[in-house]
Design brief:
The protein has helices spanning 3-22, 26-48. With 61 residues, it is an all-alpha fold.
């Protein structure tokens, strides 16, 4: 995943968390806000790498 993808995911999850918060679904809002932060942090890490990429994660582990 590259930095742009991670930033896009972070922004989208933030919007979804806000919608859940407005609707009163607090656990879901909390979960998605945390995921948005995680993706944002990964985007920051990716910026520090040589090619602005974050290593892929193995699926199924």
């Amino acid at each position: 995943m590259n930095r742009d993808v991670l930033q896009g995911i972070s922004r989208q999850r933030k919007k979804e968390a806000a919608a859940l918060l407005r609707a009163g679904f607090f656990p879901g809002a909390y979960y998605l806000a945390g995921y948005a932060v995680e993706c944002g942090l990964k985007a920051c890490i990716a910026k520090q790498t040589r090619r602005h990429d974050f290593p892929g994660q193995a699926v199924g582990r």
